[in-house]
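cache lookup: miss for this entity combination. No prior model stored, computing from scratch. Input as submitted by user K.M.:
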Amino acid sequence: MPRTTTLESPGCPPLRAITFDVLGLIKVTEARSKQGGVPKVVERWGEPDASRCVVSASINDRNVDPLLAVARKSGVIELLSPVNGDIRVSLPNVNQTDVPSQEDGIVGLHLFKKQSSDSSSRLCTLLTCTTKGVATLRSVTVPKSLGDSTFDDTPTTWKVCAAGNVLCCKVDENENYAVFGGKGVEVNIWDLATHTKIWTAKSPPKNSLGIFTPTWFSSATFLNKDDHRKFVAGTNSHQVRLYDISAQRRPVMSFDFRETPIKAVTEDTDGNTIYIGNASGDLASVDIRTGKLLGCFLGKCSGSIRSIARHPNLPVIASCGLDSYLRIWDIKSRQLLSAVFLKQHLTNVVFDSHFDDEDVAGSVAPMPSSEQNVDDEPVEGDDEESPPVIKQKKKKRSKSRSLDENEDPTSSSKNKKPKKVQKLDGEDEGSHFAKQKRFKMSQNVDKDEEEPISAEQEKPKKSKVRSKDGKSKKSKKPKGESIDV
Amino acid sequence: MHFDQTSGISTISLSLFTATIRGMGNKRKDREVQSDDDEPMKSRTKSTDGGKPQLLPSMIKNKEKRSALYAKLKLEKKTEKRKKAKAREALESKALELGEELPPKKVPRTIENTREADETVCRPDDEELFAGNDADEFSSVLNSQRVPKVLMTTCRFNSTRGPALIKDLLTVIPNSEYYKRGTYDLKKIVEYANNKEYTSVIVVHTSRREPDALLVIGLPNGPTAHFKLSNLVLHKDLKNHGNPTGHKPELVLNNFTTRLGHRVGRLIQSLFPQDPEFRGRRVVTFHNQRDFIFFRHHRYIFESKEDKQDANDQNNETEDGKTTLKGKVIARLQECGPRFTLKLTSLQHGTFDTKGGEYEWVHKPEMDTSRRRFFL
């Protein structure tokens, strides 16, 4: 009997992804370890309506009171709760000029993660950018319930470009700078605190035949968490370019990828791997330090990739696009973990990282994640405390630091090699978190950092580490069982 | 020393030799066993239909015996089959006599009905599908808010069969016009057609004087479908072809089941007027089978035919109430127009743009890993 079913894909680790589509629907897909990691659509928010097509989305993925910002085609921006889909705030059309929104729709939206200085947790900041290049920074208070009136600060607006269409807009991890680029708009970086342009790229020279490729950027992303000076941009002429604003105005490196426009670029957390997706559905990971293709993600993906999201904790990326599938891939093996058919052309995907596998409160899974947040927070706090002026002074120091960090990942990747095997044989979440924590620790503390390397070279210690992992596995399993019972 | 060596070698060779002998002996034994078991095995095959897998007839070395066994097996199979068929027929005839329900007919297994499960297959209860349909690019044409108007053109260099196909297609698709391609860019032509409020553009691509690709572009921002065209038979090359009238044809779209197929079906539907004239008795068929779309163009007629043999049936029918038609009604088909096969290679989002276009679906070689996977 021939095979009549599709090949079963390995399940994915417990996660929760939110996708946005052309009809304005927001769908929540969850994978639970109980169901063998098969992701399923659990919720659908909104009614199908073409004018409410989601153009851009951004999530503030904090532990308490997370928020999801969604920009519609009609120019309406909505703030939702990613937990239950309640609309908290609905901002009407942002345009001051009352231009029909079809011509000047929103292309980029960013919901700021860091709290503003007056520490009222209800206040959140939004950056939007339209095709005509009008960037708007506004803060909104989120009411407890929908009935409350929303206090809207006077938005600060500035023009990013004089001519051309902005197509991509991205804010760096520390949320001090933003990059804009588009059709006829060279990529430029703006300081969000002072609303000044600090850097503009220069188009690459004509090639040997004297042919000049017109500027048309279709995607951009910052490379490193702590470094706003390096970023990657994908162009419509299927070129991926690495810019370093401290080095030169022309790209430091550029390489071609396939034959269709690069539609999505996303950075990895390690700061030197990027994921690129193009208009014919090819998805690949590239080491941006060398510009070498690490490998392609093969999985019969046939439609243009509109968005790629990297899970903050798990070694997993999600891609979605015009083939209306949400696909979840493993980073290391580049295997397709699962694909969910979501019926409409998808425009965006985000991960909700604070998703606990079991519905029961106080379960095992959220504990490590909360610990991680504890780890994360001091880093963020440091960044917030240091004002931008000091940062510029620190440039040299930070440069050296960044160099160090460039070395870090390599060493860590070396470290990871023995771990890889472990990861393959069983994707235990608990052990993974433990690894992550270790990785974080090594990143945070510079002095300790050298130790693990030496430790890694000695064999007995390695075995110790393994046994630790094993212990953590063992210690976690009984707990999970008790909950199941 | 020397002696030792030789002795060693000899022992080794001896052991090897013994091993081979033993092996041979085993083989011989096996064969003997087989030949001994030959008769019982045959009897077993007779009795239980199929012996054990260890005693395969291909293991028999003697050709005569083997072929005899094969012939025997074949005969058994044949008789078995005949027996089964006879039993089935008997059952059927019995059921017919008693007026019972006939035993269910077995459905043969084909590639189509064993196709890989596909979650993208459209379901009639899917409200999102209909919401999507209302929002898509064809809805204005298909809701007959706009009248379909088609611009046809060719590739840059065309000759003989290309223009002939265009001529045939012009008769098939009402409200279509042919424009000489000239040296215009396709993007310019699309722009022009947009200004003139055409709803679609069809480009027939020829290579080596043979049409080999068809490009259907929805306007103003509809998708672009790229088809491979093959097995073309022109109107004048068809035997006993009919000549179509100028009525608006009916359209038959078969088996466009998945979301992609649905979309392609809607694209094709938007080429034709939505109000067919049934008086014309003209039908255009796009039949999808295993991702190949077969195009046919027919005229049909319902004829009442008087037969001497069917006199009784005729009476029955007239008694049933069909007073106007005399005799048995027969639908007759006459093929006219071109006949060709299409295969989708890509569906592009937006109008024609090879460099900067986004694809909704592209055929990639990695998709062809199963014969039973279909996309339309």
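stored under new cache key. The first helix of chain A runs from residue 366 to 385.
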